[in-house]
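2024-03-11 09:14:02 INFO receiving multi-entity request
2024-03-11 09:14:02 INFO entity count = two
2024-03-11 09:14:03 INFO echoing inputs for audit
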Amino acid sequence: MTSDELADIFLSGDDYYALRKVQHYLQTHTRKELHQELLTPAMYRIGQLWQENVISVADEHLATAICDFVISATDHRSQAEKEAIGKAMIMGFEGEDHYLGLKMVACVFREHGWAVHDMGPNLPLVYALDAAKQLKPDVIGLSAALVSRLPLVKTYMDAFGTLDPKPTVLIGGRAVTLADLSHAEAEGAVVLENLETLQHWIQSRKELNYGTSAPH
Amino acid sequence: MAQAHHIEEWPLPIFKLDRELTILASSKMARTLFKESPVFTGLLEEGSRQKAVEFLNPARSINPIELTFLSPSDEPTVMDVHCQWQSDGTANAIAVPKDRHYNRVSEQLSNLRRRLNETNYDLLLEKERTEELLQNVRELSAPCIKIDHQRLLIPLFGLIDKLKMETVMPSILDNVYRQDGQTVIFDLTAMDDIDSDGLNQLNALIQSLSIMGIAISITGVHPNHAKRLHELNTLLYVTFAVSLQEVLLNEH
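2024-03-11 09:21:47 INFO inference complete, emitting structure
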């Protein structure tokens, strides 16, 4: 199955057929491959079809809902969270309504034995800070699909810098592939272009922690 | 400017555009609903700009196109834009809001999703709190009570499983060592049940204590416990008594 075919299935609105197709794909592929090679390009394709005036926003919303369903239905939740090797809190910037990427990121973290708190998209900084103070995450992941949200990076980072213990800030989403974020990297943020680089980051962190002490 | 005046009062956002999509004139509605900008693309969300440039040209504008506009407070609104080009190279464009029902349903859907997310978050917080409480309960379910300078009484409470034993073991060993006790009495009266992992851990604890030279008594054994305790392979280090009273009398 190609990602274009999957995009057509999403647009047809047949949720169970989409799920069956994806489950079949998962028999020979990893979940990360599903997210990166199939779901992400399928959703980019759907965005492209809207750009080409072929489909309407309503079609796009339907496809998004079905993709959301497929991600939830194939998520891996058996990991006992009390034995989690780290805690990640992930969110979308205020004014950012794209949330599928967050769900995929949550899956990757969970698959590597982390506890994940997905705060959803469009999270105003006040709430984000409140939640971070309570949850004390090792990592805060920020996602932006719209380049127009990137000026908020500095505001969010400055705020998270005041937390104790200070979490590592990860920034991802489609916007980071379209804009230059070297200023955020200079301030200590880790910029990740896709799920693969996220996976590498998680693995290298694990190796690092074996040398010193585990975060928990 | 007669023409511009003409579109001013229309009850929809209307624009007069040139080929570069500069706004030559617009209706009052257009100026109240959208942000201020000299060019049409400036009214749009970033994802819509390229689409507008591509489709709003004389060669293509037959079908309406959907574009996302930004309100003065940056709220996105999707509208259908109908456009017709004139022979003088200008265009009349009308933005028609989507069916209200569609907006209502889509808003409701995103509210529902948000609520699910919030519930999910609240549940996670509750779960963490419960975990903490459980840990507290575990720590409290094997208190070390000093009876005299030689003897320690350790009542075991509730269900004894691996996690509970792992939690209490270090503090028991530490207590016994610090208080320089010689006898430890485990009282099982309040013990609910013990699973096989819990039993293994208890075994290990008894072994550790006997290596430290401590005498071990177990009292308050219920018939159900008796069956399980059979499986202990450290029985030879342990003496059993019917009641705590008996242990206390015997050893004095």
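2024-03-11 09:21:48 INFO post-check: The first strand of chain B starts at residue 14 and ends at 17.
2024-03-11 09:21:48 INFO post-check: The mean pLDDT of chain B is 86.
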